[in-house]
Write a structure and sequence with these properties.
198 residues, alpha+beta, HIT family, subunit A, eight-stranded antiparallel beta sheet, 4 helices, 8 strands, 18% strand, globular
Length: 198
């Protein structure tokens, strides 16, 4: 745990009594915590955050199977708003965040966005990865991972701008409120918490 890391503090169980609504633990597993996304695209948008302070999902080879099970489980429950999910991760690396604001595993699960899995085709170089993510390997290079129920993309993300996924996604939706720090949309965060905890 790195106490200067915002996401380490979010997953720290000892801080539960001080946790704001936008850091509510909606679901927990041995290696991950699901929290609502601040600056959500729409109600139901959540993040899967690792309990351990590691830079990306690729650096958790033993956790990928658990992550996959978690995503399958939450995607089966339509009451939480997660349908046609786009999984999106800025996989940061030491010295290059790869577009991530925080270099700590946090994969966004964005409802009704699965068709945008290919949004960086032709713009960023692609690497090979299979749908199960079993070929996802730890390495020094930052990446962008996008996965829907039937497609997966792994892009090289060396020196990409901060929040590139959000910028591109919101642009495709014709919106300019992509910056979660400026537009936290706490009303939508509250709606997401109510979907998970009626």
């Amino acid at each position: 745990m790195a106490m200067d890391c915002t996401l380490c503090r979010v997953v720290d169980e000892s801080l539960a009594s001080k946790r704001p609504l936008h850091d509510t633990h909606l679901l927990t597993t041995a290696s991950f915590v699901v929290i609502p996304a601040v600056g959500p695209v729409r109600p139901g948008h959540v993040m899967v955050v690792s309990r351990s302070h590691v830079p990306n999902l690729a650096s958790m080879p033993s956790g990928v199977g658990e992550y996959n099970e978690l995503v399958q489980m939450v995607s089966r429950d339509e009451s939480n708003g997660l349908h046609d999910v786009l999984e999106a991760e800025h996989g940061g690396a030491e010295g290059d965040r790869g577009g991530a604001c925080i270099t700590h595993v946090h994969v966004n699960l964005i409802p009704s966005a699965g068709t945008l899995v290919d949004m960086f085709d032709g713009e960023l170089s692609r690497q090979d990865v299979d749908q199960s993510l079993s070929a996802l390997r730890s390495g020094a290079a930052p990446y962008i991972l996008l996965r829907s129920s039937d497609a997966v993309r792994l892009y090289v993300a060396k020196a990409v701008p901060s929040q590139l996924i959000r910028r591109a996604l919101f642009g495709r939706l014709g919106r300019d409120d992509w910056d979660w720090a400026v537009f936290p949309h706490l009303d939508v965060v509250n709606a997401t918490v109510r979907m998970w905890r009626p």
